[in-house]
Amino acid sequence: MDPKQKALAEQFQARIDADEKIEPKDWMPDAYRKTLIRQISQHAHSEVVGMLPEGNWVTRAPSLRRKVALLAKIQDEAGHGLYLYGAAETLGIDREELLEELHTGKAKYSSIFNYPSLSWADMGAIGWLVDGAAIMNQVMLTRTSYGPYARAMVRICKEESFHQRQGYEILLTLCRGTEAQKQMAQDSLNRWWWPSLMMFGPSDEASTHTQQSMDWRIKRKTNDELRQQFVDATVPQADFLGLTVPDPDLKWNEARGHYDFGEIDWAEFWNVVKGNGPCNRQRMQARIKAHEEGAWVREAAMAYAEKRQKRQEERKAAVA
Amino acid sequence: MTNKKNWPLWEVFIRSKNGLSHKHAGSLHAADAEMAIENARDVYTRRSEGVSIWVVESRYITASSPNQAESLFDPADDKVYRHPTFYNLPDEVKHI
After folding, report:
1. Alpha carbon of B75: minimum distance to chain A alpha carbons (Å)
2. Cβ separation B6–A96 shorter than 8 A
3. CA distances from A122 to A38, A129, A241 (A)
4. Cα–chain-centroid distance for residue A195?
5. What pLDDT shows up at residue A60?
6. The complex's ipTM?
7. How many Å apart are CA B54 and CA A23, to the nearest integer?
8. CA distance A120 to chain B (A)
9. The pTM is what?
10. Structure confidence by residue, pLDDT tens digits, A139-178
C-alpha cells in the first residue's frame, strides 16, 4: 500500500474507533464500500423477496382485521427494501445493477424466504420468529458505522415491531383455539424454528466476514451472540403460547445465564444458501416475472414524463 | 433490459408538522416530480410522519466536499467570543 493510502486508511480506522459515522462522500477503503454494498443490497433483497411467502396468504386471511394487517406489513417490507436500496445507492451502485445482481443470483437474500408458507399459522410464525430474528440484527445495525445504513435501520426498527406483535397475536389466537388450531401453530413452529436460527448466519468460527465487519463497526455483535440473544428472548414466548420448541437439547443453563441449544444442521443451511432450498427457484421466477411484466409501466411513465417536459419547454419557447 | 432510460433519483424532504423545517428523509426513483411526491407519500409517510413534502432531483444538489471540511468549518473553532459564555458577568445580574 502506498504511504498516502496507508495514511488515509489509518485516519479512517481512527474515525471508526472514535465511533464517528461515515457519510457517502467521505473517503473509505474499497473493501469497506464493497462489504457495505454486499450487505445492504442483500438486506434490501431480503425485504423484497420476503414479501412473496406472505403474499401467498393475503387472499386467504381469516378476517378483515388480519388481512389489513398483513397487507400493511407487506407494504412495509416493500418500503424497507426501498430505504435500503436508497442507502446502497449512496455508495455509487445504481438500482438497475442491484436488481440485476439479484436476478442473476450474484447477490444473495436471506435463505429463510426459500421456505414455503404452508398454513395460515405460518403468517404468525413468520411475524414472530422471522421478523423477531430480523429485529435482533437490525437493532444492532442502528449503530452501524455507515450513516445512511444506520438511518434506514432506525426507520425500519420503528416499523418492524408491529410485524412481530401481529405475528405473535396470530399464534396466540390459534393456541387459544381448538386442538386442531393449536396443532397448526405447533407444526408451524416446528418448521420455522431452525431456519430462523439460521438467519443469523454461519457460526463465528465459520464466518468469513465477521471479524473485519466488527473492526469496521458495520456489525457490533457476532452471529453467535445475536443467535443466543434471540433464543433467550424467544423461548419464554414459546412457553407462554404453550408450544414446544423442536429442540431436545434446549435447556436453561443457570451457570451461563442463557439457554443452551442444539447444533444447527449446517449442511441444510449451506444447501439452501447455494440455491437448493424448497423455494429458491420459485422465488426468483416470481421476482423476475414481476420485474419484467412491470417494465412497460416504467417505460411508459418515463416516456410520459419526457413528453410533458418537452411540451412545457415548447410552450415556454412560444411565449418568449 | 433494453436501452431504456431509468427513472432518475430524487431526494425527499419531509415537514413532520407545521412549525418545523423540512428534513431530509431519504431518496427514491420516480419518472417526474409529481410521481416523486406520490412515491414519497407512500414510502416515507405511511404513519403520519409528514404534513408537507419537498422533492428535488438529486443531480441538482451541490454539496460541499469532505475534503473542504477543514477550510470551511475550522475557522469557526477558535472564535469562542461568538458564544454567550465567553463574557464574564457577575451572578447578581439577572435575565441576561
Report:
1. 21
2. yes
3. 29, 10, 15
4. 14
5. 96
6. 0.88
7. 22
8. 26
9. 0.92
10. 999 999 999 999 999 999 999 989 999 999 999 999 999 9
